[in-house]
Amino acid sequence: MEGNVRYSPQVSSCSIKVRLVLSSIGVAVGLIVFFFFSFHYRNYNAGLWGLVSGLAAGLALGVTIAYSKHVWDGNPRQLKNFMLTGCFIQLAGICGFVAYLVLAISKNQDLIEYEDGYYLTTVWCFMTWKWGFALLMYSRTFLRSYQEKESLIQGEEAFGNKSAYDSVGEKQ
Is residue 52 predicted with pLDDT exceeding 80? Predict the structure, then answer.
């Protein structure tokens, strides 16, 4: 029956630290891009998509921090809302990517950073898609780890085995 064994991802502390660092960098870079492209280059399209990318990275950071602080222990089903949010962020990123790519090609634009440089905007639409995907995957991984814990506890109760939590503090 080894073929029927389902692997459930366990979130290691190392992967949580990596996610925290990457998401923090994503927030910082998104904010820097917003200010830099909006106020220095006057490329408001790229600046706003950089801000949206930073906000999506902020959501991924928030979900990871909440998981590491055990906020979801009471109701891990709330992570499904973040999965759905990640899907919508991905959809916005893909739509923006295609729209700005079509604009850049139809206007026969070169790679310019000032004002309406659409190729740079496609980069930040892709980055927004990436952080939407990260939010979806982080939330999904965290939800699966809770589901695995829940199924183990229910399995112990179904077979009448004592849970490891029940034996804490009992005298042998």
Answer: yes
